[in-house]
């Protein structure tokens, strides 16, 4: 049943319900729990309960930090929620002339704000939670939930701090890039973020630690995944694989092979011999 945008609702009660559903979320029951979550969030959207959606976005970011093994699952949930709420907005907020009302912020913008808030807090405190957070952001990029432009500022901050010698920021960059590069389109995303050139600039700095340098150099290798010949010469390759001997054997076999004018030796089977004997008896009779 459709509810009016102005209907009253208990935001605290809705937030507790949503929190309870998130506690139940796992791989096996994902579809059913996600459907219930989307239903609650859609109802909140219809009633103008933006604070509930904001609490949900912040809770998702926090859970991705504390339960990093489910980061990809939470990112996919955000993708589902974003798609459904976007459809809900189009269904109820389009005007007759085709323009769209902007009274309700999109779920993407709410999620970006939540991630930025957690990101700033982690940088200020230099907390280890920065690492799972950037991996979650990488998952959101891969799922198309967060636009590249909205993440650019966060990535630029990490590069600036890495150039200043902060090892934690370099580690965070390594985590983010490796997370995104898992998928085929990940390299394109990293190129749009300017990761390759920025990392090379960081590597030019003498103040970065050996650990940071090693991790960032490993990331550079992700952009140059080309086949490399491990053999120093063709002769060494032929020697190891005995390619020269194989070529000689093939040539010998070709020399011994019959030509078109040669006839292959005929073989007479036992049954053919018996048939010929029977024919001879009939001729004699």
Automatic annotation (TrEMBL):
Annotated stretches, region: Disordered: 247-285
InterPro entries assigned to the protein according to its UniProt record, in alphabetical order: ARM-type_fold
Database matches in SUPFAM superfamilies: ARM repeat
Protein name from the UniProt record: MI domain-containing protein
Organism: Suillus luteus UH-Slu-Lm8-n1
């Amino acid at each position: 049943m459709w509810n009016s945008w102005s209907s009253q609702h208990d935001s605290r009660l809705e937030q507790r319900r949503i929190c309870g559903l998130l506690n139940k979320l796992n791989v096996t029951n994902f579809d059913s729990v996600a459907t219930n979550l989307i239903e609650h969030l859609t109802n909140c959207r219809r009633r103008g309960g933006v604070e509930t959606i904001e609490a949900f976005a912040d809770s998702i970011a926090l859970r991705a930090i504390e339960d990093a093994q489910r980061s990809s699952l939470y990112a996919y949930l955000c993708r589902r929620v974003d798609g459904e709420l976007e459809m809900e907005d189009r269904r109820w907020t389009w005007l007759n002339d085709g323009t769209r009302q902007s009274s309700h912020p999109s779920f993407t913008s709410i999620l970006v704000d939540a991630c930025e808030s957690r990101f700033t807090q982690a940088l200020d405190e230099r907390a280890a939670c920065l690492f799972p957070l950037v991996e979650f952001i990488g998952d959101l990029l891969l799922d198309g939930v967060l636009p590249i432009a909205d993440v650019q500022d966060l990535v630029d901050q990490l590069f600036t701090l890495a150039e200043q010698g902060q090892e934690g920021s370099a580690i965070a960059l390594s985590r983010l890039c490796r997370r995104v590069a898992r998928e085929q389109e990940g390299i394109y995303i990293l190129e749009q973020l300017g990761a390759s050139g920025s990392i090379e600039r960081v590597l030019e700095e003498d103040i970065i630690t050996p650990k940071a340098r090693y991790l960032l150099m490993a990331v550079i290798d992700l952009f140059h995944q080309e086949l490399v010949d491990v053999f120093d010469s063709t002769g060494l390759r032929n020697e190891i694989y005995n390619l020269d001997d194989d070529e000689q054997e093939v040539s010998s076999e070709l020399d011994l092979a019959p030509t078109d004018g040669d006839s292959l030796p005929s073989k007479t089977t036992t049954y053919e011999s018996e048939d010929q004997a029977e024919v001879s008896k009939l001729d004699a009779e």
